[in-house]
Amino acid sequence: MKTIHTDTVIEAVKQMCIEANLQLSPDMKAVIAKAKQEEDSTLGKQILGQLCENLEIAAKEQIPICQDTGMTIVFVRFGQDVHIEGGGLEDAIQEGVRQGYRDGYLRKSVVRDPLIRENTGDNTPAIIHYEVIPGDTMEILIVPKGFGSENMSRIFMLKPADGIEGVKAAVLQTVQEAGPNACPPMVVGIGLGGDFEKCAILAKKALTRSLDEGSPLPHIRKLEEDLLKEINASGIGPGGLGGKTTALAVNIETFPTHIAGMPLAVNICCHVNRHSKRVF
Amino acid sequence: MEKHIKTPMTKEIIENLHAGDYVYITGTIYTARDAAHKRMYDAMLEGKEPPVDLKNAVIYYLGPTPAKEGQVIGSAGPTTSSRMDKYAPLLMEHGVSGMIGKGKRSLAVQEAMKKNTCVYFAAVGGAGALLSKCIKRAEVIAYADLGTEAIRKLEVEDLPVIVVIDSSGNNLYETAVHDYRITHGLE
């Protein structure tokens, strides 16, 4: 049994919200720098150069990389032998988000009611997904998600007969429709299998997987590589103004599904693919 | 072609801008995004005056992060323009002649742009820290209750943007990707 105080959770969540918005992970930075070297469109190369410069300014001057500092998505993996002291875990996470967005000068982008649209003023509530795991550790992953790209994400309830070609066609259609709206170069997170909501959560989680690792499943890893090539043959390019760098990576997560279906979710993220993790 | 221009965005300036031009803007521009557009639009439909003089004005689709002490503004990149498509033609009727954002525009907006001699620029999406360095002054001038979505008057210096749709209807999003595909044997 391990005891974790809510004050520890609040402080960690606050710091993660701030750091995720100021600095990308090393794998994200590396893949953007590599794309800049390899881009063969003049304007595309210039745009990728601006993105690299933007990352340097953000880190040096502590200005958020993008003004859309996102709605905060939180993945919690909670060990069943962990005891939380000091109050509710959910309240502590929301308080950490509140403090992070206030003290980090991040934008408050959440409205309380989808139709009335009054800003909550502190970027809460965050959307929290819990998973109970064995053992006495807790892991919190913070994902500030921008909505320019979120708006271009799609779910397809494919049929088993659609097969791998159906998956590819749906992903390519999504990327094509996203075009310049999703701030390419993008990262494409895919959830394949499960049911209607499971595939969507998998797609979001796929965005947080290190770009240095492919899928551990050989046929899925090949699908990731093939899709990346096909997306980059679209010519959409950086900023949607032509070039070979439309996507920086394709990450796919899978789950068992029903004999009658093949749910597919495509969660698009821009090049500001942010996440920060702590293990307690 | 690289060009330096100063606001107000007059017809003479706009007629010399072509899709694909890389432009540096200096002068006064205004921010407005979803909520401010809706409020201006509703006011105009009721026959009221908008809170800013829109004649030859440039609207930047932006909701910045808050400024820290000593900063003019926080991160300040463009938001997706298509969400403003419903409102943009009426704003053009009231004098708006330049729009800065990112992403595609509707056919209705493109038609209104030709009719009203208007230009649409893209700024690089996700480069908000870099773009904030070009903003020398920022002041909330209307709808302060909207927070980040309030209308701000900005003084910008050499704000880098690209002409995506010019007043003749040429659209770089269509031509640039098409040209890239042709020259790289992807068609």
Helix and strand arrangement:
The complex is a heterodimer of chains A (280) and B (187).
Chain A: E1 2-5, H1 6-22, H2 26-38, H3 42-61, E2 71-79, E3 82-85, H4 89-103, E4 127-133, E5 138-145, H5 147-150, E6 154-158, H6 163-178, E7 186-194, H7 196-207, H8 218-232, E8 247-257, E9 262-269, E10 276-279
Helix pairs in contact in A: 1-4, 2-3, 6-8
Chain B: E1 2-6, H1 11-15, E2 22-31, H2 34-45, E3 58-60, H3 88-93, E4 98-101, H4 107-116, E5 119-122, H5 128-132, E6 135-142, E7 151-165, H6 172-183
Parallel strand pairs in B: 1-2, 2-3, 3-4, 4-5
Antiparallel strand pairs in B: 2-7, 5-7, 6-7
Number of extended strands of chain A: 10
Structural class of the helix and strand makeup of chain A? alpha/beta
Outline the biggest β-sheet of chain A.
4 strands, mixed
CATH topology of chain B, by name, is fumarase
Largest beta-sheet details of chain B: 5 strands, mixed, barrel
Report on this model:
- The complex is a heterodimer of chains A (280) and B (187).
- Chain A is of the alpha/beta class and 280 residues long.
- Chain A has two domains: 100 residues, 2-Layer Sandwich (Dihydrodipicolinate Reductase, domain 2); 126 residues, no CATH class.
- Helix content of chain A is 40%, strand content 25%.
- Chain A has a four-stranded mixed beta sheet with strand order 4-2-5-10, with helices on one face.
- The two termini of chain A are 13 Å apart.
- Chain B has 187 residues and is α/β, with parallel strands linked by helices.
- In chain B, 27% of the residues lie in helices and 26% in strands.
- In chain B, α1 links the parallel β1 and β2.
- The radius of gyration of chain B is 16 Å and the shape is globular.
- Chain B starts with a strand and ends with a helix.
